[in-house]
Structure prediction request, 298 residues.
Amino acid sequence: TETVYGLGGDAISDHAVATIFEAKGRPSFNPLIIHFANPQAAWAHVIANPVAKKLAEAFWPGPLTMVLPRHEGSAISLLASAGLDTLAIRVPAHETAHELLVKADRPIAAPSANRSGGISPTLASHVSVSLGQRVDAIIDGGPCHIGIESTVVAFTNDGTNDRAVLLRPGGITRADLEAVIGPMESALGKNEPTAPRSPGMLERHYAPDTPVRLNAKSACAGEVLLGFGPGALSGASENSLNLSENGDVREAAANLFAMLRQLDCPDTCCIAVMPIPETGLGIAINDRLRRAATPESP
Prediction:
């Protein structure tokens, strides 16, 4: 899709959804995002409030996922929603994804196309390396132009209105959302290790095999540097990379997962990451980096 490559299966088929979990090695309590060809198809499966419809009008098709109560009559597999009474829904903007959804004529459940907890793929070759023969086919749609997952918004009903809550930062910033619906709450930093409401809320996620050290000014012996901004790699090892020489957070987001993959190798003791501004897409980048840097549970 326009965000990252997705591992898709028929969202109505319990068997297909089970094979998605199997291929990824994904914890069964982590829900999947359900993709639709258009908003009308999505509304048939959830109970949408006026705020959600306003966001859909502004940002669909596009990198926005909304978590809403599912209709009682929805045929979406309960396994896809991890047993929750909500569904995470999205209408992607990528032409290839849209064409697939139209031709399939059914909702497609699709997490990122990588082993669970690992680095999300932004090229078809990343999918091949990560999943190999675990998938039946790979559709090469070229590089993902956003390169970071969708923004996830849920809703809290306080009895008088439905208030939007930002669960995961992504391709659409909080400022973009608030320009349409006004001030919103945020659940950022509130990890949900046992029963997350949306994908990407596990404490450790998006992680390379090589340990990640954040807020580095330079790389120590045995480390490679993932830099940001002009002159960031001055004095760094030749294997180091710069997310954006111009200090552009959009370029950094597009490069993030691909560069983490490049730096993830057995000969490296650690990936040292320079600070990224906590503004705009930088918020989403830092969210992914903090989760990638979280040590694996013993």
Summary: The CA atoms of residues 14 and 77 lie 5 Å apart. The mean pLDDT is 89. The two ends are 34 Å apart (CA to CA). Helices lie at 14-24, 39-43, 50-59, 95-104, 124-131, 174-181, 249-263, 281-293.
